[in-house]
């Protein structure tokens, strides 16, 4: 079992030329801007501000690497945020494509979706990309604590329909506020590292 308290920031890369080889197992966190990747990582690592959290979408503009023992946790920049110069958005797209196409030891992609909303076209594109390229992944539904019980029940029913093409993919409701789903996510990470 990984000791998540031993996490260390390793490095950050903003361009393809900086990205080095991925020689150890990697757990990758992907999702649209402002979906709660940094908050999830802070909860996972039991740290308050380890991964920088911002209310402004599109703050993470680099691939950030964290390390626990011989495992890398990879925080990808959020997609789908349009208020960036075209050249910068192209750089992000190139960086993502290069990251996934390079010979890396990707054990799991944790795809984050905001539980409160229907998946965006970008979310569906990302899920289809993961399926088409045979990446192992699961879905984490963030911000579960923001829904009242009746809203949550309604969203859970809608999500079954919205994500029905995913078959038996693991789907975990998650709250960085109250910790819902954190232990389950750790269990799934442990499974892929065995």
Q: Which class of secondary structure composition applies to the elements? A: alpha/beta
Mean pLDDT: 88
CATH homologous superfamily, by name?
A: P-loop containing nucleotide triphosphate hydrolases
CATH architecture: 3-Layer(aba) Sandwich
Round the Cα radius of gyration to an integer and report it.
16 Å
Number of domains: 1
> What is the CATH top level name?
Alpha Beta
Kindly, what is the distance between the CA atoms of the first and last residues, rounded to a whole number of angstroms? 10 Å
Number of strands: 7
Which residue ranges are poorly predicted, with pLDDT under 50 across at least 5 consecutive positions? 53-58
Per DSSP, the total helix count is: 5
The share of residues in extended strands comes to: 15-25%
Mass-distribution shape: globular
Please outline what is shown here.
By secondary structure, this protein is α/β, with parallel strands linked by helices.
Description:
Helix 3 (121-132) links the parallel strand 5 (106-114) and strand 6 (137-142). This protein has a single domain, classed as Rossmann fold (3-Layer(aba) Sandwich), CATH 3.40.50.300. Helix content is 32%, strand content 21%. The longest helix has 16 residues, at 86-101. With 194 residues, the chain is of the alpha/beta class.
């Amino acid at each position: 079992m990984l000791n998540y308290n031993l996490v260390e920031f390793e490095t950050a890369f903003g361009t393809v030329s900086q990205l080095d080889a991925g020689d150890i197992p990697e757990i990758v966190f992907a999702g649209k801007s402002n979906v709660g990747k940094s908050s999830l990582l802070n909860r996972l690592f039991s740290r308050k501000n380890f991964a920088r959290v911002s209310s402004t979408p599109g703050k993470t503009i680099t691939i950030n690497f964290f390390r626990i023992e011989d495992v890398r946790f990879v925080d990808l920049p959020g997609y789908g945020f349009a208020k960036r110069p075209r050249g910068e958005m192209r750089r992000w797209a190139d960086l993502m494509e290069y990251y996934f196409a390079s010979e890396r030891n990707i054990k799991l992609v944790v795809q984050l979706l905001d539980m409160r909303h229907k998946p965006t076209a970008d979310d569906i594109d990302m899920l289809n990309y993961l399926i088409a390229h045979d990446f192992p992944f699961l879905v984490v539904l963030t911000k579960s604590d923001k829904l009242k019980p009746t809203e949550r029940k309604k969203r859970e029913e809608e999500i079954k329909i919205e994500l029905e093409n995913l078959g038996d993919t693991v789907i975990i409701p998650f709250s960085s506020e109250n910790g819902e789903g954190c232990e389950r996510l750790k269990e799934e990470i442990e499974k892929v590292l065995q």
